[in-house]
Amino acid sequence: MTSDSEREFELALNVSRETIERLKVYETLLKKWNPRINLVSSSTLDTIWSRHFLDSAQIFGLVPDFNHWADLGSGGGFPGLVIAILAADRPSPPKVTLVESDLRKSAFLSTVAREIGLNVDVRAERIETIYPLRACVLSARALAPLDKLLEFTDLHLKADGVAVFPKGGQWRAELAEAQTHWEFELATHNSKTESAAAILTIKGVKRV
Asked: Smallest Cα–Cα separation from 75: which of 121, 109, 50?
């Protein structure tokens, strides 16, 4: 049976039936593992498709061309695993790297990738100590303030790459703080899932 939030996802995004089936496998595994390792808040399990899948998927179309996407602090796989699932429909699926230092969560990420057959590299390492990833695209969801995320961007993003950061209602305050320490090109995009939230796309990061 199709849930209301699944229908909302399908209406918001034009994706293949194969993508929907992959996401259903992901949903099943997430609900199976969540009681043991708390991947997401249990209060959001009934709205996975809108609260987590759509919230993650909306950033995919902001970067149409890439061959390596790195997601930092991937946790339960948002947005990184969703990005990998959406990218799997491409004739030559790009590489997606998921960085998650928690060994139990990284094991979950590897399990989902294996079950679905995704081109995913799971790194159970700390963001600060992992060898520079030189990614074309860098993302992180609910990981750290923007100022800290730009430190990670400076370390792991290619010079001509783009960082994509979904941010909640306090994003303007985070932006003002970050601009005291960093120079960068910024574009903002409205969130499909939260009216006060925004998605920041950032290029050309340089420390002031």
From this structure: 109
Say whether pTM exceeds 0.85.
yes
Query: Tens digits of per-residue pLDDT, 59-111?
Result: 998 998 899 999 999 999 999 999 999 999 888 889 999 999 999 999 999 99
**Secondary structure of the chain in the HEC alphabet?**
CCCHHHHHHHHHCCCCHHHHHHHHHHHHHHHHHHHHHCCCCHHHHHHHHHHHHHHHHCCHHHCCCCCEEEEECCCCCCCHHHHHHHHCCCCCCCEEEEECCCHHHHHHHHHHHHHHCCCEEEECCCCCCCCCCCEEEEECCCCCCHHHHHHHHHHHEEEEEEEEEEECCCHHHHHHHHCCCEEEEEEEEECCCCCCCEEEEEEEEEEC
CA–CA separation, 90 and 109 (whole Å): 21
Domain spans, the chain:
4-207
Q: Closest Cα to residue 54, out of 108, 3, 115?
A: 3
Identify the CATH number of the domain defined by range 4-207: 3.40.50.150
CA distance 190 to 124: 32
Contacts of 180 (CB under 8 A, 6+ apart): 208
- Structure confidence by residue, pLDDT tens digits, 106-132: 999 999 999 999 989 999 999 999 999
Contact 198, 167 (CB under 8 A): yes
